[in-house]
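cron nightly-structures :: item 1 of 1
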Amino acid sequence: MIWEKSKFYNTTERIQGILHKISNEIIKRCKQQINIKDMLDGDVEKCMQDLQDSIDCGRKWRKIYETTAGIIVKNNKQNSWDFNLNTIFAQVDAFVQRCVELKEICEGQLQFARKGSDSSIP
């Protein structure tokens, strides 16, 4: 809608800037939900769920972009989205990968440090 209706934000550079800012905001909000202390000393399962939610969010954001870009290309041959995806998604992709790696650490905590909810079982 912004791409089609706005007189100010209908250029490639400005839309790409908005998309980049959205990516940064997604990362910021996801980071606020992840408590690393839970991973090391507390509720490992909650941390794992927060990490999975962040992974899902980052992947979903990229999927939403791809779907929207496809619709715009299909419906509007003149002004297709030809953005540098690295500018928009490089940080999100890196964040998602870090979340995957942190989730693996949590799995190790559950398996080897017995930090899970059933850690009282001998």
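cron nightly-structures :: done
Helices lie at 2-5, 12-33, 36-41, 44-75, 85-113.
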